[in-house]
Structures are given as C-alpha cells and as structure tokens.
C-alpha cells in the first residue's frame, strides 16, 4: 500500500475554477496537471518550439519530498508533445507557480486549451547524499562501461 501524504495547494487567480490535480486511476503514480491559459485563448505550440504553460497552482510539499513533472504518454505518442526538461523537479521549499515546459516535436501546430491535461506530477521522497572523498572505488563486474556497454 502506498503512503498518503498531505500537500497544501492553492489556486492562483488565473487558475480559479480548474480542477485540482487528481489521479485518473486507482493505481496511477502521477496526478494530472491542467493548463491554466485564458478561456477562449489557447496557446498554439508550433513544431520545434517550446512554451512554459501555467497551471495556476502553487504547492507546499512536506520536507524531504519532491514533485516531478513528467510527460503524458498520450500527448507524446499522438502529437509529439512532451515535457522539455523531463522530469522537472519541484523542491519542497519552492512556493512559486508550477509551470510545465512543453515542446512540440511533432509536425503540426498543437493548441493548448484551458483545462487540458498537459503533464503529470509524481510526488516522491527525497534521499540526500553525503559525499565522502576516497582514493579508489570498489571494483564491479561492469567497471567503467558506460553508454551502450551492457547491450544495444
């Protein structure tokens, strides 16, 4: 069973009337983020271009959590539209508006209308690292094999 945490959320004036992020199925990992563009004035995302889409939302994550903004697979598969900096990270101490940086890798202009589901947000615990300088690292079977070293 997954852990349920409480996240404070606030609509900004241009996001009023839009639904809060929600899970679309019982076992979904991501909550849908909605475009908070003006009614009747969609943003048109031209092929090869990117745009920062407002959500009209601010959140207060609990300490030691982050939110990741990820693409919606349907937008990518059907239209070539995806999140440019995927995953985008929202830190627990950020209090500004959540924005979604979309890019159009497709061949047609893509209109982004008010209320459209544009990305998904996954809330996740954060582990912080403490680095310790050493003279050598332990050996492994893989060693220094990098890109493509374990197969195609």
Task: Write a structural description.
- The chain has one helix at 73-79; strands at 8-11, 31-34, 43-45, 50-54, 57-60, 65-70, 81-83, 88-90, 99-104, 110-112, 117-125.
- The chain is 5% helix and 33% strand.
- The chain has one domain (8-125): Deoxyuridine triphosphatase (dUTPase) (Deoxyuridine 5'-Triphosphate Nucleotidohydrolase, Chain A).
- The protein is globular, with a radius of gyration of 19 Å.
- The strands form 4 sheets. Strands 2-11-6-8 form a 4-stranded antiparallel beta sheet, with no helix packed on it. It has a 3-stranded antiparallel beta sheet with strand order 4-9-7. Strands 1-5 form a two-stranded antiparallel ribbon.
- It is mostly beta strands.
Strand and helix layout:
Blueprint: E1 8-11, E2 31-34, E3 43-45, E4 50-54, E5 57-60, E6 65-70, H1 73-79, E7 81-83, E8 88-90, E9 99-104, E10 110-112, E11 117-125
Antiparallel strand pairs: 1-5, 2-11, 3-10, 4-9, 6-8, 6-11, 7-9
């Amino acid at each position: 069973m997954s852990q349920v945490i409480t996240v404070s959320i606030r609509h900004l004036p241009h996001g009023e009337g839009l639904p809060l992020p929600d899970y679309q199925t019982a076992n979904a990992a991501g909550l849908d983020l909605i475009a908070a563009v003006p009614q009747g004035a969609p943003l048109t995302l031209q092929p090869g271009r990117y745009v920062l889409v407002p959500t009209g939302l601010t959140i207060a994550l609990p300490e030691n959590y982050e939110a990741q903004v990820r693409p919606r697979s349907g937008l990518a598969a059907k239209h070539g539209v995806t999140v440019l900096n995927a995953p985008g990270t929202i830190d627990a101490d950020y209090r500004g508006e959540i924005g979604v940086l979309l890019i159009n890798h497709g061949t047609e202009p893509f209109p982004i209308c008010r209320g459209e589901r544009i990305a998904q947000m996954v809330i996740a615990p954060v582990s912080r690292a403490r680095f310790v300088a050493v003279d050598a690292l332990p050996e492994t079977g893989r060693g220094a094999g990098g890109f493509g070293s374990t197969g195609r």
